[in-house]
Structure formats: structure tokens, C-alpha cells
Design brief:
Blueprint (H helix, E strand, L loop, with lengths): L1 H19 L26 E6 L11 E11 L7 E7 L6 E4 L7 H6 L8 E6 L19 E10 L1
Antiparallel strand pairs: 1-5, 2-3, 2-4, 2-6, 5-6
Length: about 160
């Protein structure tokens, strides 16, 4: 009797499992995964965009200026290309310096002149106008940067 019940149970289980299968013999189609996002850490070109137009004195090469700034590593997958923030003076005293070539990265000497005090500008700087193939501090080699700069004053 036990053998008949075991055979009957096996037969019912086989019928139930075969009923769950597909009616055709085609293989199951699985959608391919999307390719991973390609991260670019160096913009192709320098870009400058005013976000607030100032009304005060105009910055020019050779002048002393005071600024607030925040710098991010360039990351093409992030909003506004702002990857990891590496430095900021916001909430601290403004930074004072002479706007001169040779003492600042080229992206700043190209991007700050023409700003007026009270203005804000976003600079997207390729590594060739930043720290290049060497990198510096928290900025790796061949990595672009994004800076938000607020020109406080021109002296």
C-alpha cells in the first residue's frame, strides 16, 4: 500500500511540475544589463559661466583680489560635474591674492579676469589648465576640477 501511495504521489508531482513549464521549447530571454556608466574625470575644454553678475570693480591680471571658492574634482556622472569636494573657503575668511600668471593655475588666470566684485562664476578646468599629469594634494593626476568662485573685492 505504501508503494502505491508513493508512486501515486510521484506521478501527481510530475504532472504538476510539467504543467508549470512553458508551452514552447524556446530558451528564456534575459535582457542584457546596461553598460556601466563611463566616468570622465577630465573635461575636454575649459568653460566659464557667470551665475551672478557683479556690479563692483573688475578683476584683471595684476590686481589684488579677495575671493571665496569651493573646488570639486570633475566627474562626468555627477550633477554639474561636481564630484568629490576637495576644498572650500565658504564660511571662513576670504582668500586674498594677486591675480598673476605663474602663481595660480592657468584655469584661474583665464577664468577670473572680467569678473566684477559681487559676482559668482563657475569654472570647469581641464587638467591641462590645472595640475596636469602630476596632480597636487587631493587632486589626482590628469583630473579636471570645477570651481565656484565669488569675487568679494578687487584692490
Amino acid at each position: 500500500m505504501k508503494l502505491k501511495l508513493t508512486l501515486a504521489a510521484a506521478f501527481v508531482a510530475t504532472l504538476a511540475l510539467s504543467a508549470c513549464g512553458s508551452s514552447d521549447n524556446s530558451p528564456v530571454q534575459v535582457a542584457p544589463l546596461p553598460p556601466p556608466a563611463v566616468v570622465t574625470n577630465d573635461p575636454a575644454a575649459f568653460a566659464s559661466k557667470d551665475t551672478v553678475l557683479g556690479t563692483g570693480a573688475e578683476a584683471a591680471l595684476g590686481k589684488a583680489i579677495n575671493v571665496h571658492y569651493t573646488g570639486w574634482l570633475y566627474d562626468s556622472t555627477k550633477p554639474d560635474n561636481k564630484g568629490t569636494q576637495f576644498e572650500s573657503t565658504v564660511g571662513k575668511a576670504p582668500v586674498a591674492f594677486m591675480l598673476t600668471k605663474g602663481t595660480l593655475i592657468e584655469g584661474w588666470t583665464d577664468g577670473i579676469p572680467g569678473m566684477k566684485a559681487g559676482g559668482k562664476r563657475t569654472l570647469t578646468i581641464p587638467s591641462s589648465k590645472g595640475y596636469g599629469t602630476s596632480g597636487r594634494g587631493p587632486v589626482p593626476a590628469n583630473t579636471g576640477m570645477v570651481f565656484e568662485i565669488e569675487l568679494i573685492s578687487v584692490n
